[in-house]
User: What shape does this take?
Amino acid sequence: MEVSTSNELQPLGEASIQKMIEKLQEDCELEQHLPGGGYLHMSDELPYLVVYRVKDQEKDEDRATVRFVLSEASFLIIGDEEWEGYQRLIYSLGEAMSSKFKSFLLLEIFSGDVESNEFKIKGPADRLPATLKILKKELDKLNKNYQVLDLDSAKIENTEERQPEGQRPLLSISQLKDAGCLLIGLEVPPVYRNSEGEEYPVFFRSFKDDLVVALHKTIYEFIRIQTSSGVKSYQALGQKSLQKKVLEIDRQLASIETSYQFLWLVSPANIRQIKNTFFETKYEKVLNYHYRLLPVDPDVLKRRLYNLRMEEIDDPALSYIFREKREELDLQISMLTERGSKDFFYNSMMLYGDIEKDLLKEAETLLREVEEGTPKEAENIMKAEDFKYLAESEFEYFRSQDKNFSSKVHVRDDVNILMVSQGELYIPSDYKLNSEETKALVQHEIGTHVLTYYNGKQQPLNLLSIGLTDYDTLQEGLAVLSEYLVGGLTGNRMRTLAGRVVAASARMHGAEFQEIFRLLHEDYGFSPQRSFNITSRIMQGGGFTKDISYLKGLFQLNQHLSEGGELGPLLTGKFALEHMPIITELRERRVLKPVNLMPRYLNTEETINKLRKIREGMPLSQMINT
Assistant: This one.
């Protein structure tokens, strides 16, 4: 169990208890070491306290069960000393909090005997019928998820004996009434550990996460009906401050990812020679791809990755995104050693996902309905310095929203593509751009990639600026959507995105370089140049399917908006659309701060009208600016 070491052990006399209550009311949060291995973590904004009592801190026989309470925003670990002092503390806390919220819930959690196979809910069924029914309903739902255990239905016991068998009650019934408290005891069947107290780690993690959700839904039902608290949903009941081990694991994951440039290392160093030879031989000969030397040792990185003690994280939301990110980094690191092999391609499919039938059908429809356009001679060609001026104007717009925004624009000789790296924009010194494309490109690179990096950087989790698992899909979907919203999404651009999906699908079915090139050029009418560009990107590493992210992201975003989803919250940082429930939870718990920056285009009349059309079901084929 991790607790803060910043405060001293406090005895449980009346004076020290009063000081704790005053500190809680002043700071709105309290973390305090207590006698006999006890600990209090409490929020002044939540009218409940989840309680666990230590049986014997020397033996620590039930070290698994205590972890059910550690992710709570308000919990008390009762030590094995000064029992009367703990009773005084519970009474005083209940009295202070019930006077603020009209009522206060005490929920004690303890494990049953080793033979137990049912949850037992011990409480005032006559006074809390709705709350206890919700708890039973959620626990029965949990039981169905683990049918192999053959657990009985949860049992509600209307009893005044709500403590573990053989233990003293937290408070007497009269004391509970005087303090304005209601007490529920929950006996949990210890199916997550063996008779020696050793937990089954993988099962325990899943069981614990599901139980925490059931508890939060129950507590929220109590808060909603019995108190004056303004809590809006059960998702707001987790901790608001992040534990040290959470912050350290977040820092380590970000450090591992930024120790290598994945896209740079899987792209060929000899792409110009490959292209020249392919065209000189009339689309027949493909040179072998040559890759840059690895600046890191993959074995060392994987050792660092799996030395992270994620099993100790008790917050279900954070545990999930960290474990998911570890799996993604594991795949990436493996791919670095597999460049040019079949294993690289197989891992690429695992990393970026399969191509759903609906996405492939959408891509094929786009290629049929949108004709390949002949690029027009641009009347105005913009150079690097011209684009730098526009980019700096956008940065100045960001500074008008947040004076601390400090990203810069760099024009450099050693850069060969326009790119964003760690929130900074890099422009090749010989860069030339059709002026008609500038608005789209500014919002793609700056209004999306720079903006979400900066917004993520303001959050307590580094990964929101680096990127949660599969963040590319939503990022590129947002970037392409921004091109449409500012009037710069051309037919050829949309065809390119669709062509990447078709090419990736062909590769998944075994097609080689020449076959994919001919498919694009002859069957779908792409120019030789554009056919090569799409094919060469898909074939790097042996088969690299990241490029499906652009159309896939736009496709998912289109569905999200048409189903009533909001656009603004997606700009909080870099994450996948499937992470939105977790992002919402962390925002409701106030772990995440409000978004600092919004793009220039978001509230224009043009954007409002276009978003309305998308919400009304406009297909992707009509999201083209002519």
Residues 1-6 have pLDDT under 50 and may be disordered.
